[in-house]
Design a protein that fits this description.
Blueprint: H1 2-39, H2 46-67, H3 83-119, H4 133-162
Helix pairs in contact: 1-2, 1-4, 2-4, 3-4
Length: 166
Amino acid sequence: MEALRFIDKLSGWLALIGVPLSLILAIVVVYDVIMRYLFNASTFWAYDISWMLYSANFLLGFAYVLRERAHIRVDVILNLFKPRVKAGIEAFFLLTTLLVFCAAVVGLGIGFSFESWKIREGSMLTMWAPPVYPIKTIIVIAFLVFGLQGIGEFIRTLKIIIGKRG
């Protein structure tokens, strides 16, 4: 299906956006550690930048990890079942947990994100108070694509249940 391929590509693109954030995060942390311990001059901005980069990095990877079936799973009992039963159980949990959770986060997050942009909300964690509206927007986008990938995985499990493998 063309829609499933598009969702898979979208998940991959989002993850690719997150990849360089790991390098930037490492640079920020190393810089801050060097400044703090070698020059006794800690930065006022590194903490905020670090949590934002880390958050964006893992949020942008959610859908990709689901696509690759790389989330941590405990399959001890699930592996005892035949593929169709296993797919049925997975379909049930995709619908009742993942998709419901993603819908809730996106539904509530849109309002929070919009309000944050409207008031130009800043972080209250440090005196620097950098803007938090970009990360709130990333949360919504990430969970939207995560939910789309969940729908794609649900369709794939339905194909297994009805006996189509493609």
